[in-house]
Amino acid sequence: MNGEDPQERPEQIRNIINGLERYNPQAAEVLEAYLQQQCEQKFCDCNANRALLKLYQLNPDRIKDEVITNILVKAMTQFPSPQFDLALHLLSPSQSNPGPNSTSDLTEAVAKLRVLNAQLEGAQYARFWATLDSDDIYADLTTDIAGFEETIRVRIAQLVSQAFREVQVDVLEAWLGLDDAEAVKKFATETCRWKVSEDGATVLIPANPDNEAKKTEIREEVSVDMFSRVIRRAWEGEA
Amino acid sequence: MSYQNGLAPARAIDDDSDVEEEALVADYKEQVQYEGGLDELDQATLAAQADEIQGRLVMAAQPLDFQASLETKFQSYDNYCSLFHYILNSEGPVDLEPPSYYWAWDVIDEFIYQFNTFSSYRARIAREGKNEEEAQILRDNPNTWGCYSVLNVLYSLIQKSQITEQLAAMRRNEDPMTVAGPYGSKNLYRMLGYFSIIGLLRVHCLLGDFSLALKTLDDIELNKKAMFARVMAAHFTTYYYVGFSYMMMRRYADAIRMFSHILVYVSRTKNFQKNSQYDSITKKNDQMLALIAICVAFHPTRLDDTIHVALREKYGDQLLKLQRGGPESLPVYEELFKLACPKFISPIPPDFDRPENNTDPIDHHLSVFMEEVKTNMWSPTVKSYLRLYTTMDLKKLAGFLDVKPEELRSWLLVNKQRTKQLRWTEGGLLEGELINIGDLDYALQGDIIHISETKMGRKLVDWYLRNLARTYA
């Protein structure tokens, strides 16, 4: 699973999440600092972050709203994956499902992030960028995560390369949330190392195992072992 | 075990020990009818033993009456605390033999079951905001059946018994006794420790921590030789929670493998089981069939014949709707999920002062799960069309489906992304390899969709062997 057990995880964190220390309310501070590090250094350790959410779950007095939203935004960057959902499951029901009379800042923020995440999971990338632009709250929620937009953009490009051999520049422009065709071509050639067709209307993506769609036939594998029971039975029946 | 979330009638608090005793005896009578596993103890000996430690051990494994009052629930919690305190904090290991092989499982099972029902009950009182008297008692005792103390008991039993080390030694084919220590070499501790691991799997799952739930079983190998396999209820529970956790982690192939294993096992052994025990399993059986229906809808696959027949019989209509997808399938997903999910709980006391703030945890987990369902709901439609062609124009297909080309592009991406799934091959339950699970693959060249279908060769040898086994078994 993406972002589950990164190499960057230090020894100290490993000890916390693999031992009983994960239940010590004081461990929250260490995990919070580690989250901060993830946000700055652009890696993601959803497993450790869930340990932090678990501590919040058991000790609601320790909850820091911006830590929860940062964890969610971090998990979101791993799309498509269950990471965001796994984090949501650890929030208290009232935090993620606003009641009729209870709208705290956190519930509102979580609801907003769920919308964004659903768009990424549903591959509605153009809509994702539009949503992101639609409300200033999104800028606030993602401001701590260094390179958020770039991370999402690279991830989308990667997913596109797994499904497309050629893709129209205007489609890519909407999906990558870029301003014009020039920016798309720049991103495609420089960041992704793809080529642009001669007429400049399509981007050509090199062949990879995922965008080939090769025909395969699964044949039955037959080995002697499969018959061992039958043979033994015949042998024993004989005796 | 059947579950009841019913409102218990408030019973007058009565300290008269005779009354208590009678209630215990009545409980026990019900238990005998319910389980029939402790026939050798008649009521008279039970009453005589109630004060003794052996009697307390037996008591700890008895289900609490469904109608038990709040007072009884508090009392039961105190009983568990003092029993576990005695077992864990006496000077050195206590010299006791578990009353039966099933005992350790029954104790842990009942302990968690009571924790589960208590938490659900407390949340319900807070949500309904009608029973002010009980709300006040619950408000005043936030630590009774507290999550930290339940976790503490389970982890302590695991640590004291060195069960993790013992299991690791067994995996290396070494004698577990060499690492068992003074506690773990005793049956009582070893069994309690072992079943506490399975208890933790369950508690983590009830709290919505599905990956931690699976991680808990790192030391237990899931096979027929495992210790839990000797206790049917433990075997069954383990597979249910593991399967459910896999499903919540979108590992549908693994979830189906778990549910299938246990359902086939149950169907093979149902003739040997006592009727009463079998009844309590039937409900979970149906729940797992419902979960298989959900998983198969996400991840179409060939099921074992027995399960396929049972599934069609029990949830045939629902399965058809799930497989068709689209918005009409959503209520069916919700219905099956609610019917088959564990009774999720919140680890902290509810907000008694603002009833409207207490969302039912089941609704919370359901709403998160439904996001993924909604994301995937067009996949069956897309796939059914793609199967008909080897190349197809995207705009033309969008026209057939009556959607915008942008929308179809998203659907195609979603469906393609979901064909990659983590599947277990060896090691811990969380391990796995990313594999392609679909039999349909495609790639886009601009607006041209190139489609290829994986052909399955006929599995003749498998068919032949299975039928041979069936004929001569």
What report would you give on this structure?
The complex is a heterodimer of chains A (239) and B (473). With 239 residues, chain A is mainly alpha-helical. Chain A folds into two domains: 1-146, ARM repeat, domain 1 (Serine Threonine Protein Phosphatase 5, Tetratricopeptide repeat); 147-229, Arc Repressor Mutant, subunit A (Orthogonal Bundle), CATH 1.10.10. Chain A is built from 13 helices and four strands. In chain A, strands 1-3-2 form a three-stranded antiparallel beta sheet. The N and C termini of chain A lie far apart (53 Å). The model of chain A has no long low-confidence stretch (mean pLDDT 91). Chain B has 21 helices and six strands. Chain B has 473 residues and is mainly alpha-helical. In chain B, strands 1-5-4 form a three-stranded antiparallel beta sheet. In chain B, strands 2-3 form a two-stranded antiparallel sheet. Classes of the chains: A mainly alpha (239), B mainly alpha (473). Chain A: Pfam families: CSN8_PSD8_EIF3K. Chain A: Belongs to the eIF-3 subunit K family. Chain A: Residues 44-221 form the PCI domain.
Number of helical runs of chain B?
Answer: 21
- Radius of gyration of chain A using CA atoms only: 24 Å
* Helix/strand order of chain A, N-terminal first: HHHHHHHHHHEHHEEEH
Q: What percent of residues of chain B adopt helix (DSSP H or I)?
A: 55-70%
Weakly predicted, low-confidence segments of chain B: 1-41
State the end-to-end CA separation of chain B.
33 Å
In round numbers, the mean pLDDT of chain A is 91
- Biggest β-sheet of chain A: count, sense, barrel? 3 strands, antiparallel
Task: Name the CATH superfamily assignment of the largest domain in chain A.
Answer: ARM repeat, domain 1
Total discrete domains of chain A: 2
Largest sheet of chain B, described in full? 3 strands, antiparallel
Keywords (chain A): Cytoplasm, Initiation factor, Protein biosynthesis
Subcellular location (chain A): Cytoplasm
Domain PCI (chain A): 44-221
InterPro entries (chain A): ARM-type_fold, CSN8_PSD8_EIF3K, eIF3k, PCI_dom, Transl_init_fac_sub12_N_euk, WH-like_DNA-bd_sf, WH_DNA-bd_sf
